[in-house]
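#structure-requests
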Amino acid sequence: MKRLLHVICDYQPASQEFGEILERLYTQNWDLDLHIIPTSIPSFDTVATGFMVYQFALGQNPPGTVMYVNTAPRKEQKAAMQNNAGEKLVYAKLKNGIEIVAVNSAYTLSLVKPFIEKLHIIQVENEGSQFRSRDFFPKAVSDILHEKHEERLLEEVDPTTLPDMPEGIAMWIDGFGNIKTSIRKSQRGFNEGEKVHIKINGIRRAALVTGGSFSVDEGELAYSVGSSGHDDPFMEIFLRGGSAHSLFGNPTSGAKVIVEE
């Protein structure tokens, strides 16, 4: 049986940590024709994780696609955690059939919240290892891939209790230095061709509102309809021939984005 597995983790690509997780996933699913797409997220960044979960989960996936998502800041409590306990592992099934096994941390599931058909706590060891994502969680993922849901799913959770993604923030910095925001095309508030000012990190720059990133001259900043966000794309901040990320002092995910006249 062919299965596609998206693995989204806050580990460096080609790192020991990511390698050991992938090794464990392949080993425990060797009977499947398993294809894994690994995606690396900055450490502890649940905003970026939530963006990536949404982008992949609502994209074009074959039937039976599963996602394993692990960004775990372990901030459920400020005090020291006993035996390396952390946020709960949950199972979500979306209306389009995508199944997600994810550490329920901060904004990881925020953007897919409206599309969740059911949400459950997963029965899994949650303490006793510093490396839960390798030692405990892959077996739960394997059981979902093998359709052994009844062995894993505990009490149901109300999806409306998940937090919303904050409005007007940077969510993802792509490899070209473009800043993908949480502002939708339908929320941009300005028409194409208008000049606006964008403020991030205390830095204010003039930009041109465009329908596509390359609709500006070399060296000009664009406030553009981006390539992510599906039916209602997210707005992107794009510096043609340069890095918008550098221009605004290298903001991190979650940084406030103010767009004004």
